[in-house]
Design goal:
The chain is of the alpha+beta class. The chain contains 7 helices and 4 strands; from the N terminus they run ααααβααβββα. Strands 2-1-3-4 form a 4-stranded mixed sheet, with helices on one face. Strand 3 and strand 4 form a beta hairpin. The chain is elongated, with a radius of gyration of 18 Å.
Length: 164
Protein backbone atom coordinates (compact mmCIF):
# COMPACT_ATOMS: atom_id res chain seq x y z
CA UNK A 1 0.00 0.00 0.00
CA UNK A 2 1.40 3.40 -0.99
CA UNK A 3 2.07 5.97 1.71
CA UNK A 4 -0.39 8.85 1.79
CA UNK A 5 1.28 11.99 0.50
CA UNK A 6 1.38 14.77 3.05
CA UNK A 7 -0.13 17.98 1.78
CA UNK A 8 0.40 21.44 3.15
CA UNK A 9 -2.87 23.39 3.30
CA UNK A 10 -3.11 26.20 0.76
CA UNK A 11 -2.73 29.56 2.46
CA UNK A 12 -2.70 32.22 -0.22
CA UNK A 13 -3.20 35.83 0.82
CA UNK A 14 -5.56 38.44 -0.57
CA UNK A 15 -2.52 40.36 -1.85
CA UNK A 16 -1.29 37.31 -3.76
CA UNK A 17 -4.72 36.77 -5.29
CA UNK A 18 -4.92 40.43 -6.34
CA UNK A 19 -1.46 40.20 -7.93
CA UNK A 20 -2.50 37.06 -9.81
CA UNK A 21 -5.72 38.66 -11.06
CA UNK A 22 -3.74 41.65 -12.33
CA UNK A 23 -1.36 39.34 -14.23
CA UNK A 24 -4.25 37.39 -15.72
CA UNK A 25 -6.05 40.57 -16.79
CA UNK A 26 -2.89 41.84 -18.48
CA UNK A 27 -2.08 38.60 -20.33
CA UNK A 28 -5.25 36.55 -20.84
CA UNK A 29 -6.07 37.89 -24.32
CA UNK A 30 -2.57 37.32 -25.71
CA UNK A 31 -1.80 34.25 -27.81
CA UNK A 32 0.18 31.71 -25.76
CA UNK A 33 -0.64 33.45 -22.48
CA UNK A 34 -0.81 30.31 -20.34
CA UNK A 35 2.95 29.83 -19.87
CA UNK A 36 3.67 33.42 -18.80
CA UNK A 37 0.61 33.42 -16.52
CA UNK A 38 1.78 30.18 -14.87
CA UNK A 39 5.33 31.50 -14.51
CA UNK A 40 4.14 34.70 -12.85
CA UNK A 41 1.67 32.78 -10.67
CA UNK A 42 4.50 30.57 -9.44
CA UNK A 43 6.58 33.68 -8.76
CA UNK A 44 3.69 35.06 -6.68
CA UNK A 45 2.84 31.90 -4.71
CA UNK A 46 6.11 29.95 -4.89
CA UNK A 47 4.29 26.94 -6.37
CA UNK A 48 1.11 26.11 -8.32
CA UNK A 49 -1.40 24.38 -6.06
CA UNK A 50 -4.82 23.28 -7.32
CA UNK A 51 -6.43 26.47 -5.99
CA UNK A 52 -4.16 28.71 -8.06
CA UNK A 53 -4.65 26.59 -11.17
CA UNK A 54 -8.43 26.81 -10.64
CA UNK A 55 -8.28 30.62 -10.39
CA UNK A 56 -6.34 30.73 -13.66
CA UNK A 57 -8.84 28.39 -15.31
CA UNK A 58 -11.85 30.37 -14.07
CA UNK A 59 -10.41 33.69 -15.22
CA UNK A 60 -9.05 32.59 -18.61
CA UNK A 61 -11.51 29.90 -19.64
CA UNK A 62 -8.62 27.47 -20.16
CA UNK A 63 -9.70 23.98 -19.03
CA UNK A 64 -8.13 22.62 -15.85
CA UNK A 65 -6.93 19.56 -17.77
CA UNK A 66 -4.80 21.74 -20.05
CA UNK A 67 -3.40 23.78 -17.15
CA UNK A 68 -2.57 20.63 -15.17
CA UNK A 69 -0.98 19.08 -18.26
CA UNK A 70 1.33 22.08 -18.70
CA UNK A 71 2.23 22.32 -14.99
CA UNK A 72 3.12 18.63 -14.80
CA UNK A 73 4.96 18.49 -18.13
CA UNK A 74 7.44 21.32 -17.57
CA UNK A 75 9.98 20.74 -14.80
CA UNK A 76 10.15 24.48 -14.01
CA UNK A 77 6.72 24.23 -12.38
CA UNK A 78 6.05 22.70 -9.00
CA UNK A 79 2.71 21.68 -7.50
CA UNK A 80 4.14 21.51 -3.99
CA UNK A 81 5.57 24.28 -1.82
CA UNK A 82 9.33 24.44 -1.44
CA UNK A 83 10.99 24.82 1.93
CA UNK A 84 13.11 27.67 3.14
CA UNK A 85 15.99 25.22 2.66
CA UNK A 86 15.67 23.31 -0.61
CA UNK A 87 17.61 20.06 -0.46
CA UNK A 88 18.49 18.45 -3.77
CA UNK A 89 20.32 15.12 -3.83
CA UNK A 90 22.08 14.16 -7.05
CA UNK A 91 21.01 10.73 -8.26
CA UNK A 92 23.08 10.90 -11.45
CA UNK A 93 25.27 7.93 -12.27
CA UNK A 94 28.51 9.06 -10.58
CA UNK A 95 26.72 10.04 -7.38
CA UNK A 96 24.40 7.07 -7.35
CA UNK A 97 27.16 4.47 -7.62
CA UNK A 98 28.90 6.18 -4.70
CA UNK A 99 25.84 6.03 -2.42
CA UNK A 100 23.57 9.01 -3.06
CA UNK A 101 20.52 6.73 -3.05
CA UNK A 102 21.19 5.85 0.58
CA UNK A 103 21.67 9.53 1.41
CA UNK A 104 18.35 10.38 -0.27
CA UNK A 105 16.56 7.60 1.63
CA UNK A 106 18.12 8.69 4.94
CA UNK A 107 16.99 12.29 4.34
CA UNK A 108 13.42 11.12 3.64
CA UNK A 109 13.43 9.17 6.89
CA UNK A 110 15.06 11.94 8.94
CA UNK A 111 12.77 14.70 7.59
CA UNK A 112 9.64 12.53 7.57
CA UNK A 113 8.80 13.44 3.98
CA UNK A 114 8.97 11.88 0.54
CA UNK A 115 10.81 13.33 -2.43
CA UNK A 116 9.00 16.37 -3.81
CA UNK A 117 7.50 17.22 -0.43
CA UNK A 118 8.05 19.95 2.14
CA UNK A 119 8.23 19.51 5.90
CA UNK A 120 5.05 20.71 7.65
CA UNK A 121 6.96 23.62 9.22
CA UNK A 122 8.06 24.80 5.76
CA UNK A 123 11.73 24.55 6.69
CA UNK A 124 12.98 21.81 4.33
CA UNK A 125 11.91 20.42 0.98
CA UNK A 126 13.55 17.43 -0.66
CA UNK A 127 14.05 16.66 -4.33
CA UNK A 128 16.26 14.45 -6.45
CA UNK A 129 18.17 15.78 -9.43
CA UNK A 130 20.22 14.11 -12.14
CA UNK A 131 23.47 16.09 -12.09
CA UNK A 132 24.82 19.19 -10.39
CA UNK A 133 28.09 19.11 -12.36
CA UNK A 134 30.26 18.15 -9.40
CA UNK A 135 30.89 14.49 -10.26
CA UNK A 136 34.39 14.61 -8.79
CA UNK A 137 32.80 15.27 -5.37
CA UNK A 138 30.31 12.38 -5.64
CA UNK A 139 28.02 11.77 -3.89
CA UNK A 140 26.68 15.33 -3.80
CA UNK A 141 23.69 17.20 -2.42
CA UNK A 142 22.82 20.86 -2.42
CA UNK A 143 20.96 22.93 0.14
CA UNK A 144 19.83 26.04 -1.69
CA UNK A 145 23.09 27.08 -3.43
CA UNK A 146 25.50 25.34 -1.03
CA UNK A 147 27.14 22.17 -2.39
CA UNK A 148 28.05 19.29 -0.07
CA UNK A 149 30.26 16.58 -1.54
CA UNK A 150 31.89 13.27 -0.70
CA UNK A 151 28.95 12.58 1.58
CA UNK A 152 28.09 9.64 3.75
CA UNK A 153 24.84 9.00 5.59
CA UNK A 154 26.71 9.88 8.79
CA UNK A 155 27.24 13.46 7.51
CA UNK A 156 23.53 14.28 7.29
CA UNK A 157 22.85 15.19 10.94
CA UNK A 158 25.77 17.62 11.08
CA UNK A 159 24.81 19.29 7.83
CA UNK A 160 21.13 19.69 8.78
CA UNK A 161 22.15 21.06 12.19
CA UNK A 162 23.64 24.09 10.37
CA UNK A 163 20.11 25.00 9.27
CA UNK A 164 18.32 24.53 12.59
Amino acid sequence: MAAKKKTVPFSGTKEQEEALMKVIDELKDEKGALMPILQKAQDIYGYLPYEVQKMISDQTGIPMEKIYGVTTFYSQFTLNPKGKYRISVCLGTACYVKGSGEIYNALMEKLGIEGGECTPDGKFSLDACRCVGACGLAPVMMINDEVYGRLTVDDIDGILAKYE
